[in-house]
Every structure is written in C-alpha cells, then in structure tokens.
Amino acid sequence: MIFYTTKTTNMNFNKIMFTLLALAGLQTIKAQENTENSLKEVIVKGFKTVNGIGHLPDSKDGIIYAGKKSEIILVDSLDANKAVNNTRQILGRIPGLNIVETESSGFTANGIATRGLNPSQSVEMNTRQNGYNVSADIYGYNESYYIPPMEAVNRIELVRGAASLQFGSQFGGLVNYVTKDAPKNKPFEFITSQTIGSYGLFNSFNSVGGNYKKLSYYGFLQYRNMEGYRPNSQQSQVSGFGKIQYNHSEKLNFGVEYSLLRNKIKMPGGLTDSLFYANPKTSTRARNWLKSPWNIITAYANYTPTENSTLSVKSTYLFSSRSLVWRNEDGGAGATDDIDPITGAYVPREVGIEKMNNTTTEVRYSQNYYLGNQKSTFAGGVRQSYAWFKRQGGGEGTTNSDFDLSITGDWGYDLDFTTTNLAPFVENIFKITKNFTITPGFRFEYLRSTAKGHKEVEGDIQITDEVRNRTFALAGLGLELKPGKNTSIYANISQAYRPIDYSQLEPFGTSSKIDPNLKDSKGFNSDLGYRGTIRNYLNFDIGAFYMAYNDRIGVTLATDPITGDYYSIRKNIANSVHQGIESYIEFNILKYFNSQSDFGLSIFNSFSYVDAKYTTGEFKGKRVEAAAETTNRIGLIFSTSKLSTTLQYNYIGDSYGDASNVMTSEDPVAGHIPSYTVLDWSASYKLNNFAIKLGANNLTDKSYFTRRTDEYPGPGIIPAVGRSFYLGFTAKFQ
C-alpha cells in the first residue's frame, strides 16, 4: 500500500494502490488523462505503510490467474536480511510455506514447499526467474541450486497447484523471482550495498542500469563470503546477471539475459540426535566440498500486435554442473573421519560430478475478445524442452582435505539421462457477468526419458539402457466472484502430475536404496478462498484446500533380510491426502484511525493448518514426512517515510523424517523433527539516496533443525543457524 497526495479527486485510489502493488511499486508516478475524465494530473508519492502481500490480476503478460490462489511479494517493501536470502523473512508471509533451512551445510539456497509437500531443493515447485525455468531439468532433475540474490529481486510471484496448467504439472505450483529492471528515464544508475554480519559474513551487491535511446540495460554482481555457523562450513559465492533490451516500438521489444553463479562450499556433515542436543555446532566432517556453477542464457521477444492481443517467446539454454568430494563412510553421522593410525593418512574420499544441460522454449499468445457484452480472455501456448544430464560418482578420490576431484581407477557409476518434453496448453476466462468469471483450462504433456550407462553393485557391473515414453493430460476449472470492487471469492480444481526424476532412479550415495518398481505420481489440487482489501488498512486472504497425491514417492525404513539391519528406501509409499486452511491477514492500526496518517503500524498473521496423511498402504493414517501441521507467523511493522522496522515471530509444528513416523532410529533419515519458535528483527532507515539496514535473526538463539538427510549433505540432522546479526549500508548514484 502507499501514501498518496493528489491535485484533483474523482479517482479510485484503492485501484491505483493495487495496480502499483502488482507492478512492483513506483516511488513517484505522474499520470495525465484527457478532459473527458476531468482529471488533469495525479501525483502519487509512495512509501511503505502496509507491507503485505497482494495477488496477481486476472491476466498479465499473456498469463491467466483468474480463479487461482496467487500471491505477490514486493521485496523492497520488506525488512529482511536479504544479504543471505533469509527465506523466513522474505517468503514467510506465504501461509503454510515449509522452509528447509540447510544453507549452512552445502546448499546455496533454502528449499521451499507448500501444503505439506517436500521442501528439499524446492523439488515440488516450478522455480523460475523472469518467467523461465532455472532448475537443472524441468522434470528429470528439477532441484533448485540457483535463485537470484534477493537484493536484485523486484517481486516474487507464487501460484499454488493450479499453476500446473500454464507452467507445468508440479503439485506445489509456481514460484517466479522477477529481477529488477532498468530504471525509467535515467541514462545511468549505480547502486551499491555492503553488508557485514555474524559468522564472518561479508556481502557486496552492486548494480547498474539505465536507458539510451531505444536500449535499456540492467546488471548486477554479488560477492558473498561466510565462515559459517559451524566449523567446516565456509562458503564463497559470486552471482551475476546482465540484461539488454531493445525497445523497437510500443508494440515490440526483445532482449537477452545471462545469469551466473560461482560458489565453493565446505560441508560440515550431519549429526546424530545425541550430537545435536549436546552441541548443534558440532561438525563431523572436515574434508567435504561442493561446487555448483550455474549458467543461464535467455533470449526473448514481446509483441503486442493490437490492444487486445499479446505474443511472447522465451528461449533458454542452461549449462551447469555440481561437483562433490566427500567422505561419508558407513556408520552414519556418528562415524568420525579420522586419520588411519596404520597408514598415517586419511582414507580416500568419494568423488561425484554431475553435468546438466537443457534448452527450453515457451511461446505464449493471449487474446481479449467480446462474448456478448463482456470481455473474455484466451491464453495458450506451447513449451518444448530437451535436457541431457551426465552423472558420474563413486570414484575413489584422494586422501587430501582440499577441493580435489581427481580419482584413481574407474567411476563406480557412469550414467547418462535425457528428458524430452512437449506441452501445449490453453486457458480461457469466460466473463459471464461483470463480476463473475469461469476459467477452464487444459494441458497435454508428452514426456520421453532415457537412461544409459553402468553401475557397479557389490563387484558386479550392471548395464542400464532404458527408455520411457508417456503422455498425460491435465484439466482444470477456476471460478471467481467479485462481490465488491476490492474483494473476490475464488475456487478452482486442477489436475497435477509428477514424473519420476533422475534422483529417484539413482541414489546419490549408499545409505539409501531405490525401489526398482517406481512409477509416476498423479493427483489434483483444489482451492476455495475469500480475499480482498478494505480501504488502506486491511488486507486478507482466507481459504481452504484439498490435495490428492496418488502413488506418492517417499522415503521409509526397510529391513535387510540377511543382516537384519534397517535401511532407508525410496519408493511409491501410497496415496496421501493434504487438506487444511490457509489465511493471511494484515491490519494497519494507524491507518484505521487516520487514513491520511504519515505513519504505519501494522500487524500481520500468516497461518496454516495442514492435515497431510497417507490414506492407503502400510502407513495408512501416518503423517506425510516433512509435513508440519501448524505454521504460524506473526509480524509487527512500524514505518514512516524514512524508517521501517519489523519484528517477526515464527512457529513451525513438528514433523517426521520418513513415512514410518518413528521418533528415533539408527537410520539418518528417519526420526522426529521437533516444533520450534524463532524470532527475527530487521530495520532500515532511508535518507535521500542512502540507507542503513540492520537486524538480528533467531534472536533467542534457538537450537533447532528442519531436515534429516541421507549422505548428501549429511548424513543425519542438519542444524539451522543460531543467533546472528547483520549491518549494511546502501547508496544510490545517478
């Protein structure tokens, strides 16, 4: 929301404010209209008074959102530790968001999920930047190792399960990180932000942007270094982005973008329960390293042939890799990596290398047309993708402690995977009356997967040469009724599908096994909700959901028939049902009493209750792994034109590491994940083109964890980061 001053009246300011929210918020906007509307000029000067979330319009950029549950977050409106992409503060207002906090252990970004789905590496989400995929493979290896630094992000768009029709079949829906763009009407602008913090944090973010005639450009470079919360958890990272756009006319623009990530991460290993509760800072590994360089090149064109039609084309080439050298020998998290007293040296480490490439092209077309007296909207398109993925692992590495990928002998496995995908899709908003719309949609997917190579199993060489072809259709229907100008009732149901991916076919390590009879998962999502705003003091979205997830792939315990030992196995566990309520309410107390107040004092509550349980199979009635029943986040925000500060309370209910719901186990994946409460505080002060930011995360220094893992990046419990502080300075030059 914004504060505004005007020279004339007779304008729907709520509509202006919502539009500004959806378009990422401009600081100063001047609008001129003709005398027909008796409005000469409006000057809107914006600053933060309500820092909440909004929702996407019925259609935008050729994409239909009518009848869907969606959220949009303006990153600049948030008080948060953006230097380390603190997900709790940035995305925590999304009701029911499950965040796996593993940034101190070998991941560059925390994974997310909704509605009790698996948050690890955001595998259940369709993760995008500026509308194109940034994961290694749309279906075969859809883990997210890269997201842009939050200091470079303008807004974050989320669409729940109904996103399966226009973006892909993932159960979790879409998350799209939209980077900042070239500043308007400026030939040059330079922004620099420097941040220091606990555990050796130093973050430097620098961006440039501007316009020259018909050319616009924007780019950033970020460098981040951290010693880490635990020993052996040092991280260094460089992120970069460049965009050049040629604005040929009001109807046509096209451009290119390039994103890169370079990192080097030391992994401290996982912990047993006893080690964690004795000291969560304990490290069991000192020789584990990871690199995951990422490269994405995108070319795009946007064409508006008429006022009522749009055509867009995006073509992306991703070439990236992940390299590991580690020592996670048998014995679990309690086994130490010590020097052998006989040889006087460490035992050899294991080396693994993955090379990821994919090309994806999406074409979208939209058309507004009249059906009777009402304007309806058609949107459709097609996605074509081809990915090739090489996985080499089990190589015997050196006895050294540095990052060294050299091996002795052959690889333990050497596999090549490919995925070919072709998917046309259509949706249509039928505007039945002025306030009521019906939006049916359909998507057809063709998927071809291949796996070739060999793997050594107990001294035998197994040869793989597998081809899978399948087609599937997804349909959905959305309804939306707008009883008032700023409120709506929405409902939808959409089918979803999750194919088997590479990681589910081949375990990365030896502590987990894979069921050879794995098959794809399928089901549907449904929503019913009521959302809206009341003047400039209340923002709300309250709803219920029901999701059926059939043939769900998960991890559970099994017993070795020969040794009697327990081991974890990934297989089709059973069918599960996820149902519950989600609500977001934000109330600006000062604006309620004085709508013209120059100050804002808001309180928000993001709450969800998720009942996610297996409904068939041996674990019928058990809770789905990683699915917390209750998630409750409460924030208090005070803001003026220069100062903004936020205190956020986070409560996450308990969950389990596997489908058996055992409280304790010798297996590193299985066991109880206790509930936890975390407090975060952040503030910023702006004066002209300068700003100071500071804050504290995990104020009470709570010891907790959100995940139990197998060998990577564990094995065992991955502790979350304890209390930390940060201080930063930002300057803008133009």
Describe this protein's structure.
With 734 residues, this protein is mainly β. It has five helices and 40 strands. The protein has a 24-stranded mixed β-sheet that branches. A six-stranded mixed β-sheet has the order 3-6-11-12-9-10, with helices on one face.
CATH architectural type:
Beta Barrel
Percent range of helical residues? under 10%
Structural class: mainly beta
CATH topology (fold) name: Maltoporin, Chain A
Describe the biggest sheet?
A: 24 strands, mixed
Report Rg.
26 Å
User: Briefly, what CATH class?
Assistant: Mainly Beta
Q: Write down the overall geometry.
A: globular
Q: Determine the mean pLDDT.
A: 88
* Oligomeric organization of the protein chains: single chain
Taken as a percent bin, the fraction of beta residues is over 45%
Distance between the termini: 26 Å
Low-pLDDT sequence parts:
1-50, 507-511
Please give the number of β-strands.
40
Per DSSP, the total helix count is 5
Number of domains: 1
Determine the CATH superfamily.
TonB-dependent receptor, beta-barrel domain
Protein name: TonB-dependent receptor
Domain TonB-dependent receptor plug: 81-170
Keywords: Cell outer membrane, Membrane, Receptor, TonB box, Transmembrane, Transmembrane beta strand, Transport
Subcellular location: Cell outer membrane
What are the defining features of this structure?
734 residues, mainly beta, Maltoporin, Chain A, 24-stranded mixed β-sheet, 6-stranded mixed β-sheet, 4% helix, globular, receptor, cell outer membrane, Beta-barrel_TonB
